[in-house]
């Protein structure tokens, strides 16, 4: 019976690890609606627009203005900033865009990020993004 219990616990641990490894990164959802005006300039887009036009914008410079809803620092030598501008929807997973940057912003800041959009970026371990802005500069 002892071996069966250990085996069951081991299988449960392996299954939990497999589920965690394949889970998509999730974006925090704001408690109040977000509405941020679109950035200006020739490279300006909205969050939903970046997802909708990701094939056309792949490897191109984009600028998006949004509210910071999550920040993870020092991962793979970068800061990971999640922004939302009120466009898109959680159900379609196009309301939150992740930006990597050497710069920092705080949750609640309204910022404009400018960087290179990458389409279908896969970092492994379940961290796959249909659109992400890399090497972004941050303007408050």
Characterize the structure shown.
The chain has 140 residues and is α/β, with parallel strands linked by helices. It has a single domain, classed as OB fold (Dihydrolipoamide Acetyltransferase, E2P). Helices cover 22% and strands 39% of the residues. It is built from 3 helices and 6 strands. It has helices at residues 2-22, 47-52, 54-57, and strands at residues 44-45, 61-75, 78-84, 97-101, 110-122, 128-139. Strands 2-3-4-6-5 form a 5-stranded mixed barrel. It is globular, with a radius of gyration of 18 Å. The model is unreliable at 2-24 (pLDDT under 50).
Order of helices and strands: HEHHEEEEE
CATH homology superfamily? Nucleic acid-binding proteins
State the secondary-structure class.
alpha/beta
At the fold tier of CATH, the topology name is OB fold (Dihydrolipoamide Acetyltransferase, E2P)
Quick one: CATH class? Answer: Mainly Beta
Tell me roughly what share of residues is in helical segments.
10-25%
Radius of gyration: 18 Å
Per DSSP E runs of 2 or more residues, the count of β-strands stands at 6
Strand content: 35-45%
Please list the strands of the largest sheet in the order they lie side by side: 2-3-4-6-5
Characterize the biggest β-sheet: 5 strands, mixed, barrel
């Amino acid at each position: 019976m002892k071996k069966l219990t250990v085996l069951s616990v081991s299988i449960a641990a392996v299954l939990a690890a497999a589920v965690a490894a394949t889970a998509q990164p999730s974006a925090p959802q704001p408690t109040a609606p977000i509405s941020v005006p679109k950035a200006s300039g020739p490279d300006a887009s909205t969050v939903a627009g970046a997802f909708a036009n990701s094939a056309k914008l792949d490897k191109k410079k984009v600028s998006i203005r949004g509210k910071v809803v999550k920040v993870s620092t020092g991962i793979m030598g970068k800061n990971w900033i999640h922004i939302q501008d009120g466009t898109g929807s959680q159900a379609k997973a196009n309301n939150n865009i992740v930006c990597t940057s050497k710069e920092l912003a705080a949750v609640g800041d309204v910022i404009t990020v400018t960087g290179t959009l990458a389409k279908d970026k896969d970092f492994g371990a379940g961290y796959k993004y249909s659109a992400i802005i890399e090497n972004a500069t941050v303007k408050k």
